[in-house]
Write a structure and sequence with these properties.
The complex is a heterotrimer.
Chain A lengths: L1 H14 L6 E5 L3 H15 L3 E5 L7 H9 L8 E4 L3 H8 L3 E2 L21 E13 L16 H4 L2 E4 L4 H13 L2 H14 L2 E3 L2 H10 L4 E5 H9 L4 E5 L11 E9 L5 H11 L2 H9 L31 H19 L2
Parallel strand pairs in A: 1-2, 1-3, 6-7, 6-8
Antiparallel strand pairs in A: 3-10, 4-10, 5-8, 5-9, 5-10
Chain B lengths: L5 E10 L2 E11 L4 E5 L6 H9 L6 E6 L5 E4 L11 H11 L5 H11 L15 H13 L5 E5 L7 H16 L4 E6 L2 H7 L3 E5 L2 E4 L1
Parallel strand pairs in B: 3-7, 3-8, 5-6, 6-7
Antiparallel strand pairs in B: 1-2, 1-4, 8-9
Helix pairs in contact in B: 2-3, 2-4, 4-5
Chain C lengths: L6 H24 L3 H5 L4 H34 E2 L3 H13 L2 H12 L3 H13 L1 H11 L4 H10 L1 H28 L3 H9 L6 H9 L5 H6 L1 H21 L11 E2 L3 H26 L11 H46 L3 H16 L2 H12 L5 H5 L2 H25 L2 H9 L4 H12 L1 H17 L2 H5 L7 H10 L3 H27 L3
Parallel strand pairs in C: 1-2
Helix pairs in contact in C: 1-15, 1-16, 1-17, 1-19, 3-6, 3-7, 3-9, 3-14, 4-7, 4-14, 4-25, 5-6, 5-10, 5-14, 6-9, 6-10, 7-9, 8-9, 9-13, 13-16, 14-25, 15-19, 15-22, 15-25, 16-19, 19-22, 20-21, 21-22, 24-25
């Protein structure tokens, strides 16, 4: 009996925890972000409670959690691996303004006009294609409608993540009916669909398809692993030319307990040094600060390829309806 | 006339559509000892379970003067597998708010000649020892009414005789009333208990 | 039997309220939207539902095919290496379903719907096997020997009829766990042809801020699972036949080597193949690698330990506390069910199992709604919150095992205790738990294993977010295959260690 009592005491003692000095909700891959966060923790000698999401939730888990906790906010900072859901939080009044000084050099199109969020370290929506065979890969989104391209290609279903954001943008630019028709047409043309961007990438690496529509971070993994692939920055413009960039975004949450430390953390993450660190990581995130010397293999927006000016606020407003539409279209 | 310790009026008990006890009346005085005979399935055990409160009944009235002092010795004895003999007696005594439980337990084990099993658990006891322990556990609670449910049914002739003798020994130590349920008339005859037959859900005196 | 005058009834009610019913409340309220949701039920959803039903049914049948013979042979016959197979059988239950899926994909390249079915069957085959073995321990020796003396075939038929109920309970549990699982079908859809199951729809609906949409859309799955569980209750009651007769022991047979080889085949499918493949994957290298298999494997285990150590400790803490709560409360529940009947029993059963059937995300969001209060800061951030949700969600497993154990106990044991005036606490803990501690421990151990695998609500709770399941899943998704394999194996080994030690120590001569 005394042994059982001792075990219970140990468990109870272990159950107690002192509150952390900073609470961060982070949707960027744990592998990429954890070390960055821990380095900040060491540098400032504080304890950080970081909460991660799982990939299958594609951001939404933590966003939903922030919304559910709105009456008694827990987190100080939200580091998102995309931007549309951050805007959603702003629209719900769950963020507060902060303009980090280290964001100087990031183009204004990636920073909220009211300073509620800052975009940094982006991914581009690209075509990854095999270089060891002759491949007809699309240069523009409408090339997908041509079976000459489509029957050798694969893309992720637009149910979540950057693919959903991508097609929510297209809905915002045209209409739901047109985008749905587009998907019907590309399916008829022979385009394949995978569960996610990483899966599409793996299919190409495995030789099932000749090209895929994915993100630069997934394509970078294929390159690092030695597969014979290259990247083309897909033009998605209707009228103007440009590839789509989806940046990380970071915001200070309303009701943050640790305001000052949270601001320091935001300064640290959006800094050029951090962007460079993410550029050097396996996901090869694209720095948005001007004047950064990037590693080989990373092409810079506007310098190396044109970039679309995405009205992210409007895209964010389309997200929920787009998700429902695509859920009905694809989940069957 | 003394106040009956058990009064049953128009007791009815059925299991689904099958009526087992049908308008049964019965009174038992303090210290009175009876045997109830009946064929298998006639409701003898059910009657004991209803009296003890282990089973609900459909209608009628069952009044026990000392409900907490009504105890039963089951056919398979119902000993508590993980407790030693002494522990079983002490637990039972304390639950019945008997003072000096340990001393009384020790005394009772001696009276029933099973002191040697005080520290043993039921799985290590012989049939006879287990039966003595089951009786001891009932006696230590100073019962007013003891119910015996087919106490010797599973025994062969020799052991049955020993069982009867044990019961006589036990009953000599107590002034409790007894209801013994059996399908063997010889058991009742040997113990010199008045016999009642349970027939058609009713109790008939011989 | 237990009225609200008893402090134990209050304990049961308070624990159940805090651990299960309060976090459930927001979703239960949303169930009143179900008629509205029914209006949206279309051919797409019905097709998804049908697919989930037939896939889970096939998985249940598969678990029967694999688990029933294994349980029969291990439980009744003696043959070479029997004790080894018995030792490793529980390990198969500790392997996370995703790990099994990953291993079989690596071994065979299988993908798609049938790969999901096969993986589920392998994952949950130990349930019918273990329940069959338990059932055989209560078979009357006299009746079995009498049948054997007539013919071996009759003996076998008797075995099959005696264990049929146990096997079907195991298969039913396989069905229930499979139909609500999203991760395994999602995995096979990513590595092969795309397909969706109904739980994908539920998951998608659970991920937005109106999480109750997920709970509402999960109602068909809840109703189907409830119907199945309620159907099991009469069997459980029938199984509660204490026999005072001697129970049959395992015995030798002719062709014992063939039996051993057959069981080796089944155990290989369930355990050894998966473990072997995972171990091989710890050292797998890509085309540009310069290190050897051994170096890669060592680094993978080293990374698993250094990166995952804190997650493991944290997960062990809340899983242990959750399991402990279940071990204390489940016997009380078992007594309540034992002495209840009819509608009351069925209603209580529904209340007990609902937290297990509702989507995990709904439970997580519900706990945020209820417990995220300024005056509950310390509790909300502590591991008590996930521990309580674990206890509430997986309590039915521990309760079912206790119900079975209570039924196996002679009725006279508790009846005599009741007549002697022993309190509920004494009857439950001093008598029942003391005599059936193995069953209580098994219930707690199963709760612990399921807690280790819990992913969805772990993400939502501060103290559970950095857990083994989250790290494992993220690593799996990002193709850190070496790390995934090493981390998964490390967790299984740590879980299995007490089982191995117990087995080794109990064989040592005293």
């Amino acid at each position: 009996m005394s042994k059982i009592f001792s075990i219970i005491c140990i468990l109870l003692l272990g159950a107690c925890s002192k509150p952390a000095e900073l609470v961060i909700y982070c949707s960027l891959d744990q592998d990429l972000s954890e070390q960055i966060i821990r380095d900040f923790e060491k540098k400032h000698d504080i304890e950080i409670n970081v909460q991660f999401d799982v990939e299958r939730n594609k951001t939404v888990g933590l966003v939903s959690r922030i919304i559910a906790e709105a009456k008694n906010p827990r987190a100080d900072v939200f580091w998102n691996n995309e931007i549309a859901h951050t805007i959603r939080l702003k629209d719900l009044g769950l963020t507060t303004a902060y303009a980090p000084a280290t964001a100087e050099g990031i183009p204004a199109i990636f920073i909220d006009a009211d300073n509620h969020y800052t975009g940094f370290a982006a991914r581009a929506r690209v075509i990854m294609y095999r270089t060891d065979i002759q491949v007809n890969y699309p240069k523009h989104l409408n090339d997908f409608l041509n079976s000459e391209y489509a029957e050798n290609g694969v893309m992720a279903q637009p149910l979540t993540g950057t693919t959903l954001s991508n097609f929510a943008y297209l809905i915002q630019q045209s209409s739901t009916a047109e985008v749905v028709q587009w998907f019907d047409d590309v399916k008829s043309a022979g385009l394949g669909f995978a569960a996610g961007n990483a899966d599409a990438m793996r299919r190409v690496c495995a030789g099932d398809y000749a090209w895929c529509f994915t993100d630069t971070d997934d394509a970078a993994k294929a390159v690092v692993n030695g597969y014979p692939v290259a990247i083309h920055y897909l033009d998605q413009g209707m009228g103007e030319n440009g590839a789509m960039l989806i940046p990380n975004s970071i915001c200070l949450l309303e009701g943050a307990q640790q305001n000052e430390m949270a601001k320091k953390f935001i300064d640290y993450v959006v800094s050029a040094e951090c962007e460079l660190r993410l550029a050097h990581s396996t996901s090869a995130q694209i720095p948005l600060h001007s004047g950064i010397t990037v590693p080989d293999g990373i092409l810079l927006p506007n310098r190396d390829y044109p970039v679309l000016d995405i009205p992210w606020a409007a895209v964010a407003a389309e997200l929920d309806d787009a998700a429902s539409t695509f859920q009905e279209l694809f989940v069957r | 006339m003394t106040h009956p310790i058990l009064n049953i009026q128009q007791l009815c008990k059925s299991f689904g559509e099958q009526s087992v006890l049908h308008g049964l009346d019965m009174q038992l005085e303090a210290g009175q000892r009876i045997a109830i005979l009946g064929e298998s399935g006639c409701g003898k055990s059910t009657l004991l379970r209803v009296i003890s409160g282990l089973e609900e009944y459909n209608s009628g009235q069952v009044t026990l003067e000392h409900p907490r002092r009504c105890l039963m010795v089951f056919q398979d004895l119902g000993l508590w597998p993980s407790h030693t003999s002494m522990q079983q007696l002490i637990m039972a005594a304390k639950a019945s708010k008997i003072d000096d439980a340990a001393a009384k337990a020790e005394h009772l084990l001696e009276q029933l000649q099973i002191s040697h099993i005080a520290d043993r658990k039921p799985a290590t006891l012989s049939g006879g020892e287990a039966r003595r322990l089951a009786f001891a556990r009932v006696l230590i609670c100073q019962p007013k009414l003891i119910l015996l449910d087919e106490a010797f049914s599973s025994l062969d002739a020799d052991n049955r005789q020993q069982g009867i003798e044990l019961l006589q020994e036990v009953l000599a130590l107590s002034s409790a009333a007894v209801i013994m349920v059996t399908h063997n008339q010889d058991d009742a005859t040997q113990l010199d208990f008045p016999i009642f037959d349970l027939v058609g859900g009713q109790l008939l005196a011989r | 039997m237990m009225t609200f005058k008893s402090p134990w009834a209050w304990l049961l009610a308070i624990v159940s309220l805090l651990c299960a019913w309060l976090p459930l409340m927001p979703s239960v309220v949303a169930f009143f939207d179900f008629p509205q949701w029914l209006g949206t039920l279309d051919s797409r959803l019905l097709l998804l539902l049908w697919r989930s039903i037939w896939m889970s049914s096939a998985a249940a049948i598969g678990s029967l095919i694999l688990g029933w013979p294994l349980g029969l042979f291990l439980g009744r016959y003696r043959f070479p290496l029997r004790s080894t197979y018995l030792l490793f059988l529980p390990l198969s239950l500790m392997l996370p379903p995703l790990m099994v899926a990953q291993a079989w994909y690596g071994l065979t390249g299988m993908s798609g719907v049938w790969a999901s079915v096969f993986s589920f069957a392998c994952c949950y085959a130990p349930l019918p096997a273990l329940l069959v073995i338990r059932s055989l321990k209560k078979q009357s020796s006299a009746s079995y020997d009498a049948a054997r003396m007539v013919s071996g075939g009759l003996g076998l038929r008797l075995l099959i009829s005696h264990t049929r109920g146990a096997a079907f309970v195991g298969a039913a549990l396989c069905f229930i766990f499979s139909i609500g699982d999203f991760a395994v079908p999602d995995y096979f859809a990513t590595v092969g042809d795309l397909f969706h199951v109904y739980s994908s729809e539920v998951f998608s609906n659970s991920r937005n801020s109106d999480f109750t949409a997920g709970a509402v859309s999960s109602l068909p799955l809840i109703v189907i699972s409830l119907a199945m569980l309620l159907g099991l209750l009469p069997w459980l009651k029938n199984q509660q036949q204490h026999t005072s007769q001697q129970c049959a022991e395992p015995h030798t047979v002719k062709h014992s080597m063939s039996l051993s080889v057959f069981c080796l085949g089944l155990t290989t499918i369930l355990v050894f193949a998966v473990i072997g493949r995972m171990y091989f994957e710890t050292g797998m290298r890509g085309p540009l690698a310069t290190s050897s298999w051994l170096q890669t494997s060592s680094k993978a285990f080293s990374d698993a330990f250094s990166l995952g150590r804190a997650d493991m400790i944290r997960t062990f803490q809340f899983a242990s506390i959750g399991a402990l709560i279940c071990m204390v409360v489940a016997p009380l529940w078992a007594f309540v069910f034992h002495y209840s009947s009819g509608l009351k029993r069925n209603l209580l059963f529904v209340l007990l199992v609902l937290p297990m059937l509702i989507p995990s995300l709904s439970l997580g969001f519900g706990s945020i709604v209820v417990f995220n209060q300024p005056y509950l800061d310390g509790f909300y951030n502590s591991i008590w919150l996930p521990a309580m949700l674990i206890a509430g969600r997986f309590m039915p497993i521990a309760v079912l095992i206790c119900i079975n154990a209570l039924g196996s106990q002679a009725a006279a044991v508790d009846n005599s205790a009741k007549l002697h005036g022993l309190s509920i606490g004494q009857r439950v803990y001093a008598l029942f738990v003391r005599n059936n501690w193995r069953a209580c421990l098994l219930g707690g151990a199963l709760v612990f294993v399921f807690a280790m695998r819990e992913l969805d609500f772990a993400i939502l709770l501060p103290a559970a977010n950095q857990s083994t399941a989250v790290r494992y899943y993220n690593a799996l998704h990002f193709s850190r295959d070496n790390f995934v394999a090493a981390f998964g194996l490390s967790i299984c080994f740590i879980l299995f260690l007490p089982v191995m030690l117990h087995s080794w120590l109990s064989k040592k001569p005293s």
